[in-house]
Design goal:
236 residues; alpha/beta; Spore Coat Polysaccharide Biosynthesis Protein SpsA, Chain A; eight-stranded mixed beta sheet; two-stranded antiparallel ribbon; binds cytidine-5'-triphosphate; binds magnesium ion; Nucleotide-diphossugar_trans; 2-C-methyl-D-erythritol 4-phosphate cytidylyltransferase activity; IspD/TarI; nucleotidyltransferase; IspD
């Protein structure tokens, strides 16, 4: 398999509330995008890397250049950003030491999960090499999860043993992911907003999605509390 990696970093980081794009926020003197790209390179599987960046950004584009990654302007939603990256995948420069062959598989990774360990990349990539078409890293859920209706009244309690929290990188056979994304343009903006991961679209096609072991370190930097955790772990 020839792997390309998409890092989505075009979000605004509204819940973090720093007033700058989340991927440009620094921990221990490095932007979250730099942490994320170091993780991608350390995994040693990416022949090409594409990064979605916010409109008007210059900081993140400079980071991309240093890692030999192609920067592309993202869209209004995460799924639109992935679409933009998919359309330029094989235009990205080759990483040193990789073959020129076009990508056959793609890993889609959140810049916000910038501390995802090599094991997450490896577990996903190995399952793809073994023939899986869609693979996602997961961890057990610690909270009891309930569903509620529009009036905030509980409608059910799914068995926690059957639930998993989903992380990235998520890995796909490229043709399969392109197929899953092909009719995304038919969604309304409200529907597009509900596409919070890529595997959802594969599930919609009725296709099998395999879970493999993720890692606690692949938590998503979303709220100010997450940034405190990141600083506690990485600033000395
Ligand atoms: N993302 C993207 N394009 C968008 C929205 C999100 O590339 N239009 C990326 C983010 O940069 C992030 C990942 O998707 O790396 C996961 O999204 P999330 O954690 O929601 O980040 P933000 O959208 O930036 O944060 P918020 O929802 O709090 O504004
Ligand atoms: Mg978001």
């Amino acid at each position: 398999a020839v792997f390309a990696v998409i890092v989505v970093a075009a979000g605004s980081g509204s819940r973090l509330g720093r007033g700058i794009p989340k991927a440009a926020v620094e921990v221990a003197g490095k932007t979250l995008l730099q942490w994320a790209l170091e993780g991608v390179i350390a995994a040693g599987i990416a022949s090409r890397v594409v990064v979605t960046v916010p409109a008007g950004d210059t900081v993140l584009r400079q980071v991309c250049e240093r890692f030999g990654a192609l920067a592309v302007e993202g869209g209004a939603t995460r799924s639109e950003s992935v679409t933009a990256a998919l359309s330029v995948l094989n235009e990205a420069p080759l990483q040193t030491g990789f073959s020129e062959s076009p990508a056959t598989s793609v890993l889609v990774h959140d810049a916000a999960r910038c501390f995802a360990p090599v094991s997450s990349f490896k577990n996903v990539a190995e399952a793809l090499v073994a023939g899986e078409k869609a693979v996602i890293p997961v961890v057990p859920v610690v909270d009891t999860i309930k569903s509620v209706d529009v009036k905030q009244v509980v409608t059910g309690t799914p068995a926690r043993s059957e639930l998993r929290a989903v992380q990235t990188p998520q890995g796909f056979d490229l043709a399969t992911l392109l197929d899953a994304y092909s009719d995304l343009s038919s969604l309304s903006p409200e529907e597009a907003e509900t596409v919070t991961d890529d595997a959802m679209l594969i599930e919609t096609l009725g296709m099998r999605v395999l879970t493999v072991a993720g890692h606690a370190d692949a938590f998503k930097v979303t709220t100010p509390l997450d940034l405190v955790l990141a600083q506690a772990l990485y600033e000395h």
